[in-house]
Structure formats: structure tokens, C-alpha cells
Hints:
By secondary structure, the chain is of the alpha/beta class. About 35% of the residues lie in helices and about 15% in strands. Helix 11 runs antiparallel to helix 12 (about 270-295) and helix 14 (about 315-330) packs parallel to helix 15. The N and C termini lie far apart (about 50 Å).
Amino acid sequence: MIPFDPEHPMSRQLGLTRRQFFGRIAGGLGGAALASLMPSEAAASEPAIQVPGGPHFPPKVKRVIYLFQAGGPAHQELFDPKPLLNERHGEPLPDEVRGGQRLTAMTAQQGILAMVGSPFKFAQHGESGAWMSELLPHTAKHADDICIIRSMFTEAINHDPAITFFQTGAQLAGRPSMGSWVTYGLGSMSEDLPGFVVLASAGQGGQPLYTRLWGSGFLDSRYSGIRFRSGKEPVLYLTNPDGVCQSGRRAMLDRLGELNQLQYEQELDPEIESRISQYEMAYRMQTSVPEVTDTSDEPESVFEMYGPDAKKPGTYAANCLQARRLAEKGVRFIQLYHQGWDHHGGIKGAITGQCQETDQPTAALLQDLKQRGMLDDTLVIWGGEFGRTSYSQGPIALNQFGRDHHPRCFSMWMAGGGVKPGITYGRTDDYGYNIADADGNPISPTRHEFTPGAVHVHDLQATIMHLLGVDHTKLSFAYQGRDFRLTDVHGHVVHDILS
Length: 499
């Protein structure tokens, strides 16, 4: 630790005393989150903590539930029917369609990139006439509630950088996650629960999920996502050890807080203040977490709505129900992860199983939020890190083919406050290989300049922040000599999908 020098940049950043530290950041985003940790008397007299001076503009939503489908769901099997692929099933993909795109090592050496049609039937649903696969009968009932984006694109072609890109705005690890940026900028809506909670389906195979995906990166550690697990201990190390009573825990935290405060006054390290606040939050969570994770008070009709897995802790269905309960209790950003969408082979059976696990719970979450009047101020997002190729990986015989990674175009959907319901935005070419313009001609959008009809990862992130009342270009953090933000130096709000 450097000695204090009022002219030293580090000393200016940390401040001279605790009083100066609080005063210096009171008008900034750090002060916003710190104020949310003040005693309840202060919270009662002050409005909810937001970005400096309040939101940059009136928010359309209060909270986000992000249903991340890790592995890359195939748009050709779910939301984007391609009759031409069925007509030309088995024929080589034309070179002009591929356009020299780089391939993964898994298909780069294939002799023929044979086009494959979907083995599933599609139909139009709702007044909007949205096309959806027979794999999604429950989601199809909400066709008029959701906005399907068919023209997502990314630069990442492998899982780890692609997932990291969606979660943090960068392909390299180390940046803060989107949930961390949101809670850094907007604070928490609950005194007794974290502002950012993570739920991951248990027992799923596929690409690994790393804690850095919901980490705070170079932001203060208090903005990290807190993972709720299935089982008797939803948050690790939260319960008191045997022989420790609640009053004893309270006394220990009081003394520990005093020692940490002495250390802070000596070292001027803001992370020590964060440690104090996190201990206090953990103490409050000893009561709030068991209450919010105990679903025994839910009526049987709710479990029936979410499906047969809703009573099995750790399943996607149970996590969707848990997400609604967390949203009710004031958690601002709720991130679900469901693995298993990486279908390089046997896609017909594999994606059928995935949809059986996820379709009904996803639709139930929308219905549950809607009937409780919460969908109007909640943003629900569904999607993965990239799409799948229109050509086969491996032999086509007996429908055992798979599809390789495809970043050029894929589908996601959004629903809730501020999003136009019942629309399909963007399109792909007849091969499902490239984003196309309004006339169906393939285009090659980039992240550097907004292309109407195309949505880059940073455009999606900018739009999410906009719905929360945040200008993504103004929510930044100074680190290692430059200002960082979720969307780096890119990103455009997709106004065409906003109501």
C-alpha cells in the first residue's frame, strides 16, 4: 500500500478519510450502490438509488430475467423455417452463400458441406402469425407477447469467448458481467437480497459455466452475482455453524466490522468497505434466502403450470419458478443458465429433449408474470451465444446429423415492458446462413456501424440498458487508464423493437 500523498493518483482515487471517501462518491455511481446499503431509516426517506441524478431517462422496466441457453440453439429448428434447405437437403452449400467464412476445426476439413433441412414442422401462431417449430407448443401460445429477433450476429465462433461476449461485452475474460453493470449503475431494490442472482440448471452436460460469467471484474466485488444452488444450502456458507446462535453471529459481525473499519482508515481501500457491507447482507440473507427459496407456499396450480419438473430443485422449471419469486422480492437482475444446446450430432433427439425441459417452464414464467401484472415492468430475454450451421456436421443418414457453430445469424427473443409484442424483427437469407435485407439479399453487418434489421451483441446490450433507463455510453468505469463500459465503444439501441 502506497503512503498517502494528496498528489498521487491512487491517493486521489481512494480519498483521504472515510468521510471524504463517501463525500467524493456521493454524486457518482458508487455512491448510488453504497446508499442502498445505508440503514432502513435513510432508505425510507430517500428515493430508490439510480444512476447519477436518477435514471438518464424514464425506465420501461425495473428488472431483467435472462434465460441463457448455453450451447447455441439451432434457429433452423426453432424460430426460422427454411423450406429451401428441405428442398435441397443433401446438396452442397453454394460457395457464394458461405462467402469464405471461417469454419471451426470440427467441419473445416469436411469434404462436402451438405445442406440439411429441419426434421420438424413449423406453423404460424397468434394474431402476429409468428413462425415457431412444433418443438415449442407452449411458447407458441405467447407468440403475441414476444419479439423474435432473427438477425442476431456475433464475431465469436467458439463457446467460451461467445458466452463471455454476451455476458460481459468482451470475448476475453475479466470484464464485469451485464448483471454487475446493472447493479453498479442502478443499485439494489431489496435490502435483504442481492441485486444480482444467478440460477443454473443442475446436472446438465455441455460447455462449462465459470463464475467469472457473473463476476464483477474490475468493479467492486459487491456487484458480483450471487449463485443460488439447489439443496438445503442455496447460498454456500450462509448458515451458522453448529453451536453458533444468531445473537452470537450478530456480536461477531459487530466486532469484525469495527476491526475492518480500523483497517480501512489505515489503508483507504474501498474493498474493505465492500467486505463490511457483504457481511451485513449475508446476515440479512440468513432470513430472506430460506423464505424466498421455499416454494411450499405455492399452490398446486402453479406447479402444474411450470410442468412436472417444477418440484425438483435445480431443474430449469424449478429455477424459472424461483426467478419469478426473486423478481417479486425485488431482485433487479436474475440470470438463468441452461446448458446442453451444443448439438454437433444427433440433433433431432437432442434438441427435442432440450425443448421438453425448457418450453413449458419458459412459457409458464411469461404467463405467471403476466397474470401478476409484472410483465409490464419486467424484461425477459431468451437465447444462446450463437446459432448453428445450415449444413451438416457429420453424415446425414438416419437423422443423426448435427450442426456446427454459426455466428453470422441466429434467433433470440425478448418480452416485457418497453418491447413491441408480437413482432419478428430481421430476417435471414433462404439458406438461413446470412442476415438478409428487406428484399432477401444477404448482407454483412458489422459491430462498428448499425445496420437496420441486424442486431449485434453490443446492440442487444445497449437496448437492454436503454429499457432500464440507462444510456449505455454514459455508464462507464475508469480502469487502467481508460473508461470501460459494457458495450466497449460500440452498440446501438434497436429502437425498431421498442414500444
